[in-house]
Amino acid sequence: MATGKKTIYLISNGDYRDPACRLGWPMQEKTLKLLQTALKQLGYKTEVLPKYDEKRKHGFITRQSEGVQVFSQIEREAPVIVVLNIWAYSHHVCGPLQTHRGPILLLANFDGTWPGLVALLNHSASLDRLNVKHSRLWSEKFAEDPAFMKKLKEWLDTGNVTHDMSHLTYADKLSLSPSAEKFGQKLAEDILRNRRIIGQFDPGCMGMLNAVMDPAKVGAIGMPIEYLNQSDLLAEMNLVSDEEAQRHLDWLIKKGTWFDWGTNKFTQLTYDQVLTQMKMYSSAVRMVARYGLSAIGIPYQLGLVRCCPASDLVEGMLNNSDRPPVRDPDTRQVIREGLPIVHFNEGDLGAGIPQLLLYEIYLRKKMPPETTLHDVRWGREYEGKFIWVFLISGGAPPAHFGGWKNAKVYRQPPMYFPLGGGTCSGVSKPGVITWARCYEANGRLGMDCGIGEVVELPKEELEDRLKKTTPEWPIANVYIPGCGRDQLMASHMSNHIVIGYGDVLDEFIATSRALGIPTRVAGDVRERYKK
Fold it and tell me: Same domain, yes or no, for 186 and 277?
């Protein structure tokens, strides 16, 4: 180790919720043992913190205060590895890591069922947001993985891990067509002149500090933030009549939406849960009109999770052009009739910005304007190609599945959604997509983007992917030429990724550049732009 330290501290960061931590602890123990074996082979001792708690039946950090207490036991110059094996709240450790002086490694299993890789991407992007130097590493086999062992040794020797970033090219080095440049300049000028107000409810959902961006920087690209409060959304829901909620549900049923109805509200999807979601839908649309918003982001966890059913079905409805009409209580006019209302899941502003840009581009090119974000959940090779599993908790638009007739509404898993509520679930249809992610790192905004393809997989492969992740949630199986497992894991600046159907990458790059956002293009598609 560059510091000469021969003891490595292994930090188990986890969820806020003890039930989720208890369920994930056996896998965490397994990963800790695999990592300890690997470090022992390289001549290093380890100390695991926090210690296993017999009462809670796990050894995860579940609060920022616990993270502070753990790091108070560690010398500031000591090397630490944050071992990520389940979904974990990054702010539990990001605060303590801001004042830590030793080498920091974020390490994850690469697994769909236990999404440590999702947590790694969230933690890394959050640390970048806070200007904290760190390294990333991931594996399935650890000591049996030669590439992993080589990277781990590099970190032990130097305090840093270098990854091949040749799959990325900065957009200022690329040549776009004159028509694309003109398109981007015109759209950017309109945004900067007329602004696009983005409504963000109580940011910081689930510790995703990478979702919280500097309002000065976002406002400077013509997207001022309207900070909204979850309690106001609940208050608005109380003003929506039962009759209006019922009309929305009738509309969905008439469109052919399939509901997995049950009678046990604790484990099944019930009628009252969905009617409450319909009230949230009307309330969100009303607030968009009231505040003149161009996009809106509802973070359901934490806060609303204790108050009402899930927001996910609502989010899918908002992101869809074909959706139940909502009238303004004052003017009685239908709000944004025939258009999506851009919604960014979990209040993630870094997704909201590219979703809004894609939406504007699609409208101007007379293309379907629906967008969504997904978690970069997992992936594996299929017939010689690395096919990613992009999965989100239920907020994808039915247009991505081929319409409401292909949408399925399941009850959200009780562990994370005790009050229930439905998803907006389905299998994304095959086709070319443009993907993107906005982020803030080292004091600046940035944008990554590229082209991919949603792949139609055989039923057996599709079902196995859903089984290994979360079968109730919408899935997109995506191939990104030149951006496989190690490329995306090395460079992606979030646990989230935005997708929309159709190749509008030229216009997207041009608009981002015209707004002054440093932009990187990932994957083989960059070859078409080289000067």
Answer: yes
Contacts of 99 (CB under 8 A, 6+ apart): 76
Question: Is residue 71 one of the residues assigned to a domain?
Answer: yes
Contact 72, 100 (CB under 8 A): no
Distance CA 52, CA 58 (A): 6
- Going by their DSSP bridges, the two strands 475-479 and 385-391 should be labelled as antiparallel
Q: pLDDT digit string (tens) for 492-515? A: 999 999 999 999 999 999 999 999
Residue 302: which of 388, 434, 208 has the closest Cα?
A: 208
Tokens of 33: 């043992």
Among 65, 82, 303, 86, residue whose Cα is nearest residue 206: 303
Q: How many CA atoms lie within 13 A of 507 on its CB side?
A: 19
Query: Is residue 98 domain-resident?
Result: yes
Q: φ, ψ for residue 321 (rounded to 5)?
A: -65, -40
- Which stretch of DSSP H or E encloses residue 253? helix 242-254
Counted domains in the chain: 2
Residue 253: CB atoms within 10 Å: 12
Amino acid letter, residue 296: I
> How far apart are the C-alpha atoms of 108 and 299, rounded to whole Å?
25
Q: How far apart are the C-alpha atoms of 448 and 496, rounded to whole Å?
A: 12
349-364 helix and 505-514 helix, angle to the nearest 10 degrees: 120
- Say if residue 310 is in the same domain as residue 380: yes
Helix (H, G, I), strand (E, B), or coil: what is residue 54? coil
Q: In whole angstroms, what is the distance from residue 269 CA to residue 327 CA? A: 27
Query: Which residue segment(s) compose the domain that 93 sits in?
Result: 7-158
Give the integer Cα–Cα distance in Å for 413 and 434. 30
Quick: pLDDT tens for 297-313.
999 988 899 999 999 99
Query: Is residue 412 assigned to a domain?
Result: yes
Same structural domain for residues 268 and 354?
Answer: yes
Here the contacts of 527-531 (C-beta below 8 Å, separation 24 or greater) are 529/169, 529/171, 529/174, 529/175, 529/176, 530/169, 530/173, 530/174, 530/175, 531/173, 531/174, 531/175
d(CA 294, CA 6): 53
Please tell me whether residue 297 adopts helix, strand or coil conformation.
Answer: strand
Task: Decide: 104 and 132 in contact? Cβ < 8 Å.
Answer: yes
Q: Residue 169's beta-bridge partner residues? A: 521
- Would the pTM count as exceeding 0.85? yes
150 and 189 housed in the same domain: no
- Token couple for 472: 């109730």
The last residue of a domain, from among 158, 186, 210: 158
pLDDT in tens, 476-488: 999 999 999 999 9
Domain assignment present for 164: no
What's the token pair of residue 82?
A: 């944050």
pLDDT of residue 3: 47
CA distance 124 to 111: 17
User: Which amino acid would we find at residue 377?
Assistant: R
In whole numbers, what is the pLDDT of the chain averaged over residues? 96
DSSP state of 424: B
